[in-house]
Amino acid sequence: MKNLGNMLKQAQQMQTRMQEMQAKLEASEMEGASGGGMVKVRLSGKGDLRRLTIDPSLMDDREVLEDLIVAAHADAKQKVEAMMAEEMQKATAGMNIPGGLGGLKLPF
Question: Tens digits of per-residue pLDDT, 20-38?
């Protein structure tokens, strides 16, 4: 029973850490850029688009602008995913989770 008590304690600790991590992600933002900074996309830590900035000189070339927006979004998304992975590592540090969290996809 001592083992069960330890598992419950670990589960509670992990739940608290996960709630803290989610709050931190919600409050944080990451910026991605493309075209040498001519297009910038800012995403929340949960991946929601917060801001899009476009250099006025790009307004005449729609195709280039579309490509740069997609590239800037991909850059920001990669940064958000890296931040999420780092925060998940911190949240689960020291936890003995059977099978680990490898391949676990979070719902945000």
Answer: 888 888 889 999 999 999 9
